[in-house]
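Exercise: predict the structure of this protein bound to inosinic acid.
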Amino acid sequence: MSSNTAIEKVIYSEDEVRERIREVAAEISTRYAGRTLKLIGVLKGSVFFLTSLAQEMTIPVKIDFLGISSFSTQQKSGSGLVRISKDLDESIEGEDVLLVEDIIDTGFTTRYLLQTLAGRGPNSVAICTLLDRTVRRIVQIPVDFRCFEIPDRFVVGYGLDHKQLYRNLRCIAVLSQNMSS
Ligand code: IMP
Ligand code: MG
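Solution:
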């Protein structure tokens, strides 16, 4: 990590991330006590978060994944275009669903996924995100569970990438300005 000159600073250390995920997992476990929860991860960014979250939960969970097409943030902000490139393996009809996101930025991606999932007859759909950047929100999203609210800087780590790199960092870090542009 120290040899990684692209990283400007760590905003949440590995310990801080783990501890916060533990707290949120406990909150979710309490909220859904006595029920089984279907966690739906959005590939590829939410894989690390979903895994940690699931391991800290004390209620029965099922897991499924959705893949979405990647547009640049700028394009998405302009058009709100999102497309499913890999659908869920199983039906969510009658299930309590938790959509697990890496980051909610403008909100376009999450709104699209929320509408898609809600149309498939689940018992309930809630949203859990590792990072929430509300300062850039364009469409309103009901965020049920969030680990961290972050400032308007491009971040990487714990699943989040820059050109597919840095997903495996254990911390969450700000990329230096000249790298993230
Ligand atoms: P939204 O549709 O604008 O909310 O975009 C959310 C998606 O943009 C996330 O799932 C990420 O893939 C990507 N994204 C937004 N901000 C960042 C960031 O700071 N680092 C890495 N990916 C980001
Ligand atoms: Mg994502």
